[in-house]
Amino acid sequence: MNKILIIEDDPHILKLIQYNLEKAGFECRAASAAAQAFEELERRKFHLIVLDIMLPGGMDGFELCREIKKKSAWAAIPVLMLTARAEEIDRVLGLELGADDYMVKPFSPRELVLRVKAILRRGDSAAVSTAPVLTAGQLTIDRERHKVTVNAKEVKLTAMEFKLLVLLLERRGRVQARERLLNDVWDIDAEVTTRTVDTHVKRLRQKLGKMGKFIETVRGYGYRLRDEESSGE
Fold first, then answer.
1. Which one-letter DSSP state was computed for residue 132?
2. Which of 126, 151, 175 is where one domain is finished?
3. Helix (H, G, I), strand (E, B), or coil: what is residue 196?
4. Based on the number of CB atoms within 10 Å of its own CB, is 73 exposed (0-12), middle (13-18) or buried (19 or more)?
5. What CATH number is given to the structural domain containing 121?
6. How far apart are CA 201 and CA 208, in angstroms?
């Protein structure tokens, strides 16, 4: 059974989230602030985190997300941000910090469950893949081990970044429209926009270092991975 950590300080919203996720078959634990969240993460393994941005105790959801993604034992746990802050800059910041999805309050409990299932389904498909290792120059993707290396040095990616990179590498040399990437990587539309793709590509480029430059922007359309890099630089 997939375990979900809900980090939310409003008891009424927490109860609503927990009720609907448990009804959908998930096991849930709750934390109302960063310190309690860290304790839960140390105690047990979680498959997903539902994270509110406005938290008490001096560390908000953005900072907490940053700290979670900095620790190797927790970095691969998908994060769904759930917040009353609807401004685009907040959404973009959350994605840049490593969140896999972002929902705005008030929210539909049914949509929340669908998004959680979609995120977990993406992670599961990457984890159980039996496809061979993919390579492009100094870049190697081992899908069975969910591992990416550049020049033999491991690069830590979120589940969403991993799937996006795999798709670009599988289709290298071919331009991928933002809308197609949204459809193939993010399973449901809702609050997800083409800016989401741009944010993840930017983060991928940064993490891949010199290999990042081979993810090319096709202005007004989308992205492609240069296939000439497959022969090395």
1. P
2. 126
3. helix
4. exposed
5. 3.40.50.2300
6. 10
- How far apart, in whole angstroms, are the C-alpha atoms of residue 226 and residue 176? 12
80 with 160: CB under 8 angstroms? no
Q: How many Å apart are CA 229 and CA 203, to the nearest integer?
A: 20
Query: How would residue 137 be classed by pLDDT, with cut points 50, 70 and 90?
Result: confident
| 140 and 109 fall within a common domain | no
Provide the domain limits for residue 96: 3-126
Residue 71 has pLDDT above 90, yes or no: no
Distance CA 96, CA 100 (A): 9
Q: What is the DSSP letter of 83?
A: E
Of 228, 80, 89, 220, nearest in space to 159 by CA: 80
Three-state DSSP state, 152: coil
CA distance 161 to 133: 17
- End position of a domain, from candidates 70, 93, 126: 126
Q: How far apart are CA 1 and CA 168, in angstroms?
A: 31
Most confident of 41-45, 104-108, 169-173: 41-45
Residue 194 has which token pair? 């083409």
User: Looking at the structure, do residues 66 and 151 belong to the same domain, yes or no?
Assistant: no
Which residues does 142 contact at the CB level (< 8 Å), separation at least 6? 133, 148, 149
Q: Domain total for the chain?
A: 2
Same-domain status, 38 and 144: no
